[in-house]
Amino acid sequence: MKVHEALARSILDQDVEVMFGLIGDANLYMVDSFIKQGRARYVAAANEAGAVLMAIGYAHVSGRVGVATVTHGPAVTNTLTALIEACKASLPIVLLAGDTAVADRFHIQNVDQREFFLATGAGFVQLRAPETVAEDVATAFRRALVERRPVVLNMPADFQWMETDYVARRHYAPDRSAHIVDGPEMDNAVGIIAAARRPVVLCGRGACEPAARAHIRALADRIGAPLASTLKAKGAFDDHPFNLGIFGTFSTPVALDAIMKSDCVIAFGASLNQYTTAQGSLLKGKRLIHVSAEPADLGRHVAPDAGLVGEPGRTAQRMVELLDEAEIAASGHRTEELREAIAGFSFGPLAVPKPRPSTVDIRQALRALDAAVAPERTLVTDAGRFLIEAWPLMTVRDPRSFVYTVNFGSIGFGVAEAVGAALASDGRPTLLITGDGGFMLGGLTEFNSAVRAKVDLVVVVCNDGSYGAEHIQFRSKQMDPEISLFDWPDFAPVAEALGGTGVTVRSEEDLARAVEAIKGGARPLLIDLKLDPDSMPSIGH
Q1: What is the mean pLDDT of residues 163-173?
Q2: pLDDT, tens digit, for every residue of 173-192?
Q3: What is the CA 155 to chain-centroid distance, rounded?
Q4: Which of 12, 162, 185, 279 is deepest in the core (most CB within 10 A)?
């Protein structure tokens, strides 16, 4: 068969269900072959960055390798920011990138693609020859899974129509789920737990598999400890009466009080970065047990009193067994007072000026929209100051159903990642909270991609007509914020022009119409929340 056919066959042989992309002369025949084999879906993006971001959202929710394809030159350079996001998120992505013909040194789009890709932190695999297609594709998938980062397969265009004898080859990745720790370090950890009077059990993104969370929950129940999660593990224990919620700079006052009173933190699958630990202040004066399947996590941000490299769930299970064998009594940190404080907590009004006429209160609006979307849903959040409200308020029942797009601190990733997340969500709706700046930067064109892909997506645009972080900085220095303000078009008619449905919210009556639109089921749906930039939250409100 031709190399472009062999590439498509080999990609499908890695059990790929969806591929995202934008075609050009170095990948169009491969994509055509991929589609014609009828075994998987191809979703076209409007921008090469969008294709990679869709693969990221898909990988977040599915737990599988996200796959994208682009052509060469400027198509490659368009992907670089998205690849950095994938690297910082530690997600397995394979990008099938076309390259100019090897012999054509003066091709107008010729550039040293390898150097660009390596600069992002991505791995690189060169398609070496027609006869190595299956091996090179399998290598890219294996490396993405093992290295937990994007890996690029670089495909010279002049190989596409060459002949090759195809022999299937599947990737192999070792199973690390059985890895537990025993010996002195485990004995040390169990000894610290036994001595703790006020322990807290913390779950991070690296411990979000259902089985792992079940064992971590059982450990917390066994030792009488409240549970908490990092932001990326949002929703890990939301149905538990002693769930403190987010551990870190977004902790509620109830959670913060319990964390500060604790004498021991047992962290599973968390990096314990400066946001989780509030620059280390939340761990001050406490013993720390840190469990992770990734050796690089231990000691990266804070030195633990006991550090265990092992699969989090099985390690927690082993801790329970050893505590039972030693007949260690539970701590007394779970009190009826704490349970009642957790159950009774709710966010009060924002400590900001009353919104001007024809705008709404962001907290009130997000609460209403959160309640309107089915609870079994995927939640995606873009970047912006609205996150100060969205992250604590918006709910999700499973950490894998929460897509965090801010690993590189960029705005504009939300719509594209939401498209990929929606295609991995098994029929559940996907709710995206984005800002006006992010929507205009990266979301506008990919909203039409959502229309073409027919995904069940609700996009809420928190539209204060400004670049929020910059507006805050101008106001904090008593300066004119004029250059941070924008007179955007009304987004609801734009959404309809792009093939979707739109609702503009300027009042409580409009908010009720938006709720009815969500329940009406027309998708994709965009809700344009008109907000006052001087009535938006900032850290401390």
Answers
A1: 89
A2: 777 666 777 889 999 999 99
A3: 28
A4: 12
Separation CA 324–CA 503 (nearest Å): 57
pLDDT at 532 over 80: yes
Provide the residue type at 527 as one letter.
I
* Structure confidence at residue 539 (pLDDT): 58
In one-letter notation, the amino acid at residue 243 is: N
As beta bridge partners, residue 201 has: 227, 266
- Which residues, other chains included, contact 424 with Cβ-Cβ below 8 Å and sequence gap of 6+? 18, 57, 58, 60, 61, 62, 64, 378
**Contact partners, residue 141, CB within 8 Å, separation at least 6:** 14, 65, 94, 151, 171
Whole-model pTM above 0.85?
A: yes
pLDDT class of 540 with cuts at 50, 70, 90: very low
Q: Is 104 helix (H, G, I), strand (E, B) or coil?
A: coil
Q: Which amino acid is at 58?
A: Y
Amino acid identity of 120?
T
In this predicted structure, the answer to whether residue 69 has a pLDDT above a threshold of 70 is yes
The number of helix segments (H) and strand segments (E) in the chain equals 20, 18
Q: Which of 166-175, 226-235, 331-340, 399-408 has the lowest mean pLDDT?
A: 166-175
Helix (H) or strand (E) holding 369: helix 362-372
What confidence score (pLDDT) does residue 171 get?
86
CB atoms within 10 A of CB 170: 13
Matching residue, tokens 């394809």: 69
Average pLDDT, the chain: 95
Q: What is the 3-state secondary structure (H, E, C) of 267-328?
A: EECCCCCCCCCCCCHHHCCCEEEEEECCHHHCCCCCCCCEEEECCHHHHHHHHHHHHHHCCC
